[in-house]
Amino acid sequence: MDTLPDLSRLLAEYPVVANFLSLIVMPGLDLERRRVYRELARQIAAPDIVLQLVPHRAIEPLYELSNTTADNEWLQVLCPAFGRVLQVHRLEVTWYLPPELAQLASWLADRTATVYNRLANHDPAPVASITEEPWQMTGTCYGLPAVRTRRVYPKLQHDNTPTDTEAEQMGDCNKFFKTYSRNKLAGGILVLWCTHSICLGFHTIPIAEGRNDVFSAIYTRFPQAPDVVVYDFACQLAPYSLVREARYFANTRFLIDEFHARDHSKCGQACFASNVMQYDERIRAVNTSAGECGNQGIGRIRKSVSYMNYEHAVLYTKAFMDVWNRMVARRIARQQGV
Ligand SMILES: [Zn+2]
Ligand SMILES: [Zn+2]
User: Looking at the keywords, is Membrane present (predicted)?
Assistant: First the structure.
């Protein structure tokens, strides 16, 4: 490499990032350091919402890191890309964090806090008891009762057309665009699975809406948002959910399981379950493919359901799910020797 890339424009607009990048292109940099620095740089440059890379809970540890430059082992669980950088520095005889990285930590914390504070301007609706029509009629059947209704977000231009078909509101994920922009997506069934592949509930959808189906199912049923949501399009579900209910989802991780990671070529590593697993024992312990396993089970009834009228399809799906759950529960009981 004879000439370094021209960083002057970046230096003017984002001096902290430019200084960090010049650290990477510095001749003679240790290979392992270069690798983890580059990975962090790539994740910063990814088109995803910054809260995927730096969850709300990581803001404080990042500030601490920048103020004291003392090692922070907690950060790696929250922000694995930064964690890997710290880990490489931990291999040195004496702990030392270059000032470029301390400044980057503070810049990332600032960015995240700004985005979060701008979004988090309301609490989730309080838990209330909601009268529901019987599931046989609505095709919506969850083990958890509805505790909220989905709000309308009048400040969001496209919120009243919940279907994900328009390119401009679809973000940068090429896989998401390919799947939903075709506009010929028929309806189907959305199922929420727990990590044991037990069906927590389902709802039938006349026209697949994409992210709103998942967002609404969680927001209206879970008094508190789950810690982890695994979804094929987590990269797009995260901004969709955070823009609407940032406080409710402040501590939720939106992840894509390994089965679906392949076509998300533009999406940042921070969206993938594999990225988080290295440091987060809870995510390593749970089966992030539980949903995939369950959805394959559903595949068995897809064809027969397609020939039924609506009422029969709902009843049949419910019966299938009941049997499925019972089988899974019995298998778990057997494994535990109960
Ligand atoms: Zn994606
Ligand atoms: Zn479970």
Answer: yes
